[in-house]
Amino acid sequence: MNIKWNALAQTAGISFGITVAVVAVFALGILALSRREAVLEAAGGSGAGGTGRANAVLAGATVCFAACAAVVVYGLSLIAG
Which three-class secondary structure state does DSSP give residue 73? Predict the structure, then answer.
C-alpha cells in the first residue's frame, strides 16, 4: 500500500484553513448581532434613531450566517455525492 503523504498533507491543510475561516465568519456574525443589540439599546426611547444602522448590522450578520450555512451544505454534498 502506498500513501501519498503530500496529498494527505494538502487535504489536512485545506480542511484546517476552511474550518478556521468558517469559525471566523461565524464569530463575525455573532459580533454583528451583539453590536445590533448595542445600537438598539443606545437608540433606546428615541424611536427610529438607530433602526437603519441596526438593520444594516443585522443584514451583515445574516450574510455571515448564510455563508457558514453554504459552506456546510457544500461539504455535506461532497460527502454524500
Answer: helix
- 72, with CB counted inside 10 A (0-12, 13-18, 19+), is exposed
Angle at 30 between CA 77 and CA 42, to 5 degrees: 150
Task: Reduce the DSSP state of residue 41 to 3 states and report it.
Answer: helix
Are 29 and 66 in contact by the 8 Å Cβ rule? The answer is no
Q: Is the pLDDT of residue 27 over 70?
A: yes
At 64, is the pLDDT very low, low, confident or very high (cuts 50, 70, 90)?
A: very high
Give CA–CA dist 45/60, Å, rounded.
Answer: 24
What pTM was computed for the model?
0.82
